[in-house]
Amino acid sequence: MNTEQAIFGAGCFWGVEEAFRVLDGVVETAVGYCGGTTENPSYKDVCTGKTGHAEVVRVTFDTDKISYDELLDVFWNCHNPTTLNRQGPDVGSQYRSAIFFLSEDQEDSARATCDALAVSGQYEDSIVTEISPAKTFYMAEESHQKYLQKNPQAGCAINQSS
Hints:
The structure is a single chain. This protein is an alpha+beta fold. Helix content is 27%, strand content 25%. Strand 4 and strand 5 form a beta hairpin. The two termini are 26 Å apart. The model has no long low-confidence stretch (mean pLDDT 93).
Protein backbone atom coordinates (compact mmCIF):
# COMPACT_ATOMS: atom_id res chain seq x y z
CA MET A 1 0.00 0.00 0.00
CA ASN A 2 1.30 3.46 -0.95
CA THR A 3 0.11 6.04 1.54
CA GLU A 4 0.30 9.80 1.81
CA GLN A 5 -1.13 12.30 4.23
CA ALA A 6 -3.10 15.48 3.67
CA ILE A 7 -4.29 18.16 6.11
CA PHE A 8 -7.49 20.14 5.57
CA GLY A 9 -9.37 22.73 7.60
CA ALA A 10 -12.96 23.43 6.59
CA GLY A 11 -14.77 24.45 9.76
CA CYS A 12 -15.75 22.19 12.63
CA PHE A 13 -13.37 19.24 12.42
CA TRP A 14 -16.04 16.72 13.41
CA GLY A 15 -17.87 17.04 10.10
CA VAL A 16 -14.73 17.46 8.03
CA GLU A 17 -13.37 14.21 9.45
CA GLU A 18 -16.59 12.38 8.63
CA ALA A 19 -16.59 13.69 5.05
CA PHE A 20 -13.17 12.09 4.49
CA ARG A 21 -13.41 9.07 6.82
CA VAL A 22 -16.07 7.38 4.71
CA LEU A 23 -14.15 7.55 1.41
CA ASP A 24 -12.82 4.38 -0.18
CA GLY A 25 -9.05 4.62 -0.02
CA VAL A 26 -8.89 6.65 3.18
CA VAL A 27 -6.86 4.55 5.59
CA GLU A 28 -7.08 6.76 8.68
CA THR A 29 -8.32 10.15 9.82
CA ALA A 30 -7.36 12.19 12.86
CA VAL A 31 -8.65 15.55 14.00
CA GLY A 32 -6.35 18.13 15.44
CA TYR A 33 -4.88 21.58 15.18
CA CYS A 34 -2.46 23.11 12.67
CA GLY A 35 -1.30 26.45 11.37
CA GLY A 36 -0.70 28.28 14.61
CA THR A 37 2.07 29.13 17.02
CA THR A 38 0.96 27.61 20.33
CA GLU A 39 2.66 24.30 21.08
CA ASN A 40 0.48 21.37 22.21
CA PRO A 41 -2.77 23.35 22.25
CA SER A 42 -5.93 21.99 23.81
CA TYR A 43 -9.40 22.35 22.34
CA LYS A 44 -10.07 25.01 24.97
CA ASP A 45 -6.95 26.91 23.88
CA VAL A 46 -7.87 26.75 20.18
CA CYS A 47 -11.43 27.92 20.91
CA THR A 48 -10.05 31.22 22.23
CA GLY A 49 -8.93 32.07 18.70
CA LYS A 50 -5.57 33.20 20.10
CA THR A 51 -3.42 30.18 19.15
CA GLY A 52 -3.45 30.78 15.40
CA HIS A 53 -4.44 27.15 14.87
CA ALA A 54 -7.26 25.90 12.69
CA GLU A 55 -9.36 22.84 13.47
CA VAL A 56 -8.14 20.35 10.87
CA VAL A 57 -8.34 16.74 9.80
CA ARG A 58 -5.25 14.77 8.85
CA VAL A 59 -6.13 12.21 6.21
CA THR A 60 -3.95 9.18 5.53
CA PHE A 61 -4.88 7.75 2.15
CA ASP A 62 -3.90 4.91 -0.17
CA THR A 63 -2.73 6.56 -3.39
CA ASP A 64 -3.56 3.38 -5.32
CA LYS A 65 -7.25 3.85 -4.42
CA ILE A 66 -7.79 7.60 -4.14
CA SER A 67 -5.80 10.59 -5.34
CA TYR A 68 -4.98 13.85 -3.63
CA ASP A 69 -7.01 15.62 -6.31
CA GLU A 70 -10.04 13.51 -5.38
CA LEU A 71 -9.55 14.53 -1.75
CA LEU A 72 -9.39 18.15 -2.90
CA ASP A 73 -12.76 17.69 -4.64
CA VAL A 74 -14.27 16.56 -1.33
CA PHE A 75 -12.61 19.45 0.50
CA TRP A 76 -13.90 22.12 -1.89
CA ASN A 77 -17.41 20.64 -1.85
CA CYS A 78 -17.84 20.01 1.89
CA HIS A 79 -17.74 23.68 2.95
CA ASN A 80 -18.00 27.25 1.71
CA PRO A 81 -14.47 28.43 0.86
CA THR A 82 -15.64 32.05 0.50
CA THR A 83 -16.48 32.71 4.15
CA LEU A 84 -13.57 34.15 6.12
CA ASN A 85 -13.07 32.53 9.53
CA ARG A 86 -16.54 31.02 9.53
CA GLN A 87 -18.48 27.92 8.55
CA GLY A 88 -22.19 27.99 9.30
CA PRO A 89 -22.75 29.01 12.91
CA ASP A 90 -19.08 28.46 13.82
CA VAL A 91 -17.14 31.74 13.86
CA GLY A 92 -13.45 32.32 14.51
CA SER A 93 -10.07 31.86 12.85
CA GLN A 94 -10.00 28.26 14.10
CA TYR A 95 -12.82 27.51 11.60
CA ARG A 96 -11.02 28.96 8.59
CA SER A 97 -10.83 27.24 5.25
CA ALA A 98 -7.26 25.95 4.89
CA ILE A 99 -5.14 23.49 3.01
CA PHE A 100 -1.84 22.72 4.73
CA PHE A 101 0.26 21.09 2.05
CA LEU A 102 2.93 18.48 2.79
CA SER A 103 4.72 18.49 -0.58
CA GLU A 104 5.27 20.65 -3.63
CA ASP A 105 2.90 18.41 -5.60
CA GLN A 106 0.17 18.99 -3.02
CA GLU A 107 0.76 22.73 -3.16
CA ASP A 108 0.56 22.73 -6.96
CA SER A 109 -2.68 20.72 -6.94
CA ALA A 110 -4.25 22.84 -4.20
CA ARG A 111 -3.46 26.09 -6.01
CA ALA A 112 -4.59 24.73 -9.40
CA THR A 113 -7.94 23.51 -8.07
CA CYS A 114 -8.43 26.78 -6.16
CA ASP A 115 -7.73 28.80 -9.29
CA ALA A 116 -10.09 26.64 -11.36
CA LEU A 117 -12.84 26.99 -8.77
CA ALA A 118 -12.32 30.76 -8.60
CA VAL A 119 -13.03 31.18 -12.32
CA SER A 120 -15.77 28.53 -12.48
CA GLY A 121 -18.59 30.88 -11.50
CA GLN A 122 -19.68 28.53 -8.71
CA TYR A 123 -19.25 31.32 -6.15
CA GLU A 124 -20.09 35.01 -6.36
CA ASP A 125 -17.58 35.87 -3.62
CA SER A 126 -13.82 35.36 -3.69
CA ILE A 127 -12.28 32.20 -2.31
CA VAL A 128 -10.48 32.93 0.97
CA THR A 129 -8.93 29.50 1.55
CA GLU A 130 -5.47 29.62 3.08
CA ILE A 131 -2.98 27.43 1.19
CA SER A 132 0.24 27.17 3.15
CA PRO A 133 2.95 24.71 4.18
CA ALA A 134 1.93 22.40 6.99
CA LYS A 135 3.31 23.24 10.38
CA THR A 136 3.22 20.78 13.25
CA PHE A 137 -0.03 18.82 13.46
CA TYR A 138 -1.23 18.51 17.05
CA MET A 139 -3.67 15.68 17.71
CA ALA A 140 -6.93 16.76 19.33
CA GLU A 141 -8.20 15.11 22.47
CA GLU A 142 -9.56 11.56 22.14
CA SER A 143 -13.11 12.78 22.81
CA HIS A 144 -13.00 14.64 19.47
CA GLN A 145 -11.70 11.74 17.35
CA LYS A 146 -14.43 10.25 15.12
CA TYR A 147 -16.90 12.34 17.11
CA LEU A 148 -19.84 12.08 14.71
CA GLN A 149 -19.35 8.33 14.40
CA LYS A 150 -19.51 8.02 18.20
CA ASN A 151 -22.30 10.62 18.53
CA PRO A 152 -24.58 10.26 15.48
CA GLN A 153 -27.18 12.57 17.04
CA ALA A 154 -24.70 15.46 17.01
CA GLY A 155 -24.83 17.98 14.21
CA CYS A 156 -22.20 19.86 12.27
CA ALA A 157 -22.38 22.63 9.67
CA ILE A 158 -20.41 20.65 7.09
CA ASN A 159 -22.05 19.36 3.92
CA GLN A 160 -21.20 15.64 4.11
CA SER A 161 -23.31 14.60 1.16
CA SER A 162 -20.98 16.08 -1.46
